[in-house]
Amino acid sequence: MATTHASASAEPTRRDFLFIATGAAGAVGLAATIWPFISQMAPDAATIAAGAPVDFDLSPVAEGQIVKLFWRGKLIFVRHRTAAEIKAAQDTDVASLRDPEPDSVRVKPGKDQWLIVYGNCTHLGCVPLGNEGAFHGWQCPCHGSVFDTSGRIRQGPAPINLPVPPYAFTSDKAIRIG
After folding, report:
1. Distance in angstroms (rounded) separating the CA atoms of residues 176 and 174
2. 143 tagged catalytic
């Protein structure tokens, strides 16, 4: 009488394939179920963008040019001031200003050529035009407020200077606003 021995085969069987396929499908299903719960814990992209700092390269900004950019949904003016504009801003009698503020506190030390201010008139929020007005700074076309090359109010109904946003130089030719 011949005896049959069941030997363990090294070849995968259909049962092995079904076991692996079922396990893989279960893992994918579990990941698909858990992912929404994990992803909802991260802040929304709009929230991140609203408060994220903005890096800006100053190298392409020509002397005398004003560049507009947005940070937190607000307009920012980046002005590369000429030597004459810097001198005019520094020589102004601060006591004669409605909102007295020396030019030195509106720019970073050693970086007098760069003025960074919010780009809305402090009267009613209009956008002033650059290189305009009696002081060659900004002039609001709506109500006539005039700002000098340091963003300080010189004429018109605006009550205060153009505010300076929080910013820092990350290198000689780059700033980070925020």
Report:
1. 7
2. yes
